[in-house]
Amino acid sequence: MAKFLDTKDIISSVQKILKNAKERVILISPYIDFDKRDKILIEEKNENKIYVTIVNGKKKSQLKFDAGIKNWINSMHYVNYIFHKDLHAKCYLNEEEAVITSMNLYEASQKNIEMGILITKKDDTEAYDDLLQEVKRIVK
Prior knowledge:
By secondary structure, the protein is an alpha/beta fold.
């Protein structure tokens, strides 16, 4: 069964998605600005040969990426970056659970009032699989 998430729960759930990933992590957000904790978790996934795909889609965010994060991402073999100009969706998932939310993966967003839904493959297989198919289309 899906679970409602408030801002605090979203932050916690996204970090759990990163921490618990055993095969892959996909982070989809128009605006991305990783905080220190997220960077450490992504680096840890890279060291453990777990694929991380980062999709963002706003030119303002793209400029910030070009300024610093792009080199950091390119230094990791298991991290892939995709720019999708029409992106407005925000979704964070691993092979077992996903968060669909209003919150960008942007440190400033953590101070906003946000809402989201946690879906697990175990409890909501059909919803998780449908979400995964849409995520694959976005990543393609």
